[in-house]
Every structure is written in C-alpha cells, then in structure tokens.
C-alpha cells in the first residue's frame, strides 16, 4: 500500500497555517487526535463514572474513584505496545531528564564507592549532565568526528567489572545517525555486567522500539517527541530488575490529564498506514504502520541528502567530506547542514522568510569538535510523517539561493 501523505496531513490541523514544518526534533506538531485526547482527559480526569446498576462478580470494585486514576495505567499499556513489553515493565515520569535523575537515586544500592559509568558525547547534553551529578566516576567513549558515529569496539576496553551503568543514545537527535546499540551491548557484556541505558527519544518517532533486539536493559522515551503530551517513560528489560532498585525513587507523579493522551499518541502512529496482517493488536499495527512510514520518510531523506549534496557550498555534518564519504552510517530522517561563508543565523532567517520552520543546531562539544562552530554554525532539519516531496524541493531551492 502506497503511503498516503495527504491523508496523513489531514490529521494535523496545525498545517493549515502555511508553514512548512521541518523541525520535528524540536517542536513536533501535535495531531488533532492527541490534542482532543488531552482536552478530554483534563476535562474528565476528576469526574467519577456512574455506578453500575447491578452488582455482581464482574462489577467495578473501584466505584467512586475518579476516572483519571486509570489514565497512567492506560499510558503504561500504550508505551508497552510501543516497545513490545508488558505494562509492568514501564515507569512513567514528567520528562526523560527527571527519570534519569530518579534512576540514579534508585540505583544507589548498586553503586559502591569504586563504581564507574560510561558516558559519551553523542548523548543529549542535558541527560549527560544528569548522569554526572551522581558523583560516580565517569569513563568516556568517543565518537567518530567524521560521521558522529559511536563505534562499538571501544566499549570492550572501557567497560569493566567496576562499571554499573552504560549510557548510549539510539540515534543522534540532530545529525540523524543511528547508533549500533546491539553491538555496543555485546561489547559491554564481554567485560561487564553493567546495565545499558538507551535514550530512544530521537529513534522512537520513526521505528518501533525493541529492547530484545538491542539487548539493552533500560530504554527511555519522551512521548512529546511523538507529538504527544509531555510524559516520558523508562522501559525495563525485566521486572526482576526492580528488586535491585529503590523503587520509591522511581515513583514519580505524572498529570492524569497528560497521561490520558498517551494512548492517542501511540494509536496515531499505529493508524498512519492500514493493512497490517496477522493479529490486529496495537503492537502489530504499530510495526506495520511505522515500517511503511519509515520507508516513505527514508525516500525523502535520501533525496534531501542527494540534492543538498550537489550544492558545492553546502556541508552536511557527518556526511560531507572525504573522511565520511565512504562511511556506511544508518540514519533517521534528520540532518544538520551549513553553508560555507554564510552564518547559520542567516540561513535560518532565509528559510523562515520562505515559510520553512527549522532550527539552529544546538551547540555541544561533539559538534564543535566536528567543526560546526568553525563554519558558522549549522541548521537542523527533521522530518515528520506529513512532510512531502514538495517540502524537500522548497528547502533545496531556498538553500540554493544562498549557496
């Protein structure tokens, strides 16, 4: 079945304002289904459902309980389908940074005075700062400065018996390169029994999560990056891990009004493409729908790389250059680029003047080391299921007017 992008666009009322949104990494557009679910959840969270007229063995046992008390349970079930796990393996929180901080407190029984953790420059800086606050000695993996990739082989030398936690991203949120999580986990396991924590936030809008395939112990995802409410989740490989944690630290409160819209966000992605075979479970529909959606977006991504790459003054970070030319790096539909001799602020203003919403690439040590600051900064482009070939052509024409 061909991807019906025009049908998908009809699910976003915000697209009627005339802007071309290519900033999914920063402010994803909210589907109308999710916006309606948030409104409905806030309106009904404090209401009490009417009692059932007849009592019996199958009647509700929670008569008098506000409807919102069930919303977090439904949110955990939706996240579980997103990751292919059970709801009991999911912990909710207000944001991924808050969950990282809570996880470190919960792990205190596991952290001895000589414990270490392994960090990297590809992770989001705000998450790395949270992990560094633990006081645990940090060892550092290094990224390939030509591509921004995070090589797995180095973890065989970094992780050891003292390592308790290894943090990696599933994908870089702006460069778009997908990290070989499964290879990193395999390298870590050779020398250590450390838990591997994966930030799947940038990865989740494009592909279903699969902890089993990664071999990871914990994954984090921000539902807001799916165009959903500001709710985040930690997904654990096994409920047995909870026995080793101080679970009170992970008992974070989330707004029932927000939690009530999480199922709508997941259902939105499960419904983008119809025609899933086999069981009609939400997980199966998600895998089918996101698979078709990713295939469509990968085509747009390839066209964008090709057309921008033909402009001699354009430098795509991690892609352009002799060192990166022959590298085979898997990428989600996101990239950062700069125009030689043109400050990124000027590029961004030209895009906005032509109706294109993008963002200036966030400064960080990795991008500085990759030369982004030297070329005057970069602009990040991130695609959504509603983007079209016309959007790509409009972007390329606008950049060509500068290059």
From TrEMBL:
Residues 131-395 form the Aminotransferase class V domain. This is Aminotransferase class V-fold PLP-dependent enzyme. Keywords: Aminotransferase, Transferase. It comes from the Bacteria. GO terms for molecular function: transaminase activity. SUPFAM superfamilies: PLP-dependent transferases (SSF53383). It comes from Corynebacterium lujinxingii. Coiled coil: none annotated. Signal peptide: none annotated. The lineage of its organism: Bacteria, Bacillati, Actinomycetota, Actinomycetes, Mycobacteriales.
């Amino acid at each position: 079945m061909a991807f019906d992008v025009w049908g998908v666009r009809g699910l976003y009322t915000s697209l009627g304002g005339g802007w071309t949104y290519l900033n999914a990494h920063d402010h994803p557009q909210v589907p109308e289904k999710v916006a309606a679910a948030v409104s409905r959840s806030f309106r009904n969270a404090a209401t009490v459902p009417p009692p059932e007229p007849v009592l019996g063995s199958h009647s509700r046992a929670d008569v008098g309980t506000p409807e919102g008390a069930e919303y977090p349970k439904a949110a955990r079930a939706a996240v579980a389908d997103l990751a292919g796990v059970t709801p009991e393996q999911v912990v909710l929180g207000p944001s991924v940074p808050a969950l990282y901080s809570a996880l470190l407190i919960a792990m205190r029984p596991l952290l001895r005075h000589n414990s270490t953790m392994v960090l990297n420059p590809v992770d989001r800086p705000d998450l790395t700062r949270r992990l560094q606050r633990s006081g645990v000695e940090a060892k550092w993996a290094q990224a390939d400065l030509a591509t921004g990739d995070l090589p797995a082989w180095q973890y065989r030398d970094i992780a050891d018996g003292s390592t308790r936690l290894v943090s990696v991203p599933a994908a870089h949120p702006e460069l778009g390169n997908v990290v070989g999580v499964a290879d990193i986990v395999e390298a870590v396991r050779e020398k250590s029994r450390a838990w591997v924590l994966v930030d799947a936030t940038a990865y989740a809008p494009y592909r279903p999560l699969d902890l089993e395939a990664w071999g990871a112990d914990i994954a984090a995802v921000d539902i807001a990056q799916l165009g959903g409410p500001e709710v985040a989740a930690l997904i654990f490989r096994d409920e047995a891990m909870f026995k080793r944690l101080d679970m009170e630290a992970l008992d974070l409160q989330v707004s029932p009004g927000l939690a009530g819209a999480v199922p709508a966000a997941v259902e939105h992605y499960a419904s983008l493409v119809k025609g899933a075979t086999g069981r009609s479970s939400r997980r199966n529909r998600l895998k089918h729908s996101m698979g078709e959606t990713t295939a469509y977006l990968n085509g747009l991504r390839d066209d964008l790389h090709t057309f921008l790459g033909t402009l001699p003054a354009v430098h795509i970070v991690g892609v352009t250059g002799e060192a990166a030319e022959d590298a085979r790096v898997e990428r989600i539909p996101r990239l950062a680029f700069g125009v030689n001799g043109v400050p990124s602020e000027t590029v961004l203003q030209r895009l906005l003047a032509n109706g294109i919403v993008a963002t200036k690439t966030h400064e960080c040590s990795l991008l500085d080391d990759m030369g982004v600051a030297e070329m005057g900064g970069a602009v990040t482009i991130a695609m959504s299921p509603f983007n079209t070939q016309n959007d790509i052509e409009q972007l390329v024409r606008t950049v060509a007017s500068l290059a």
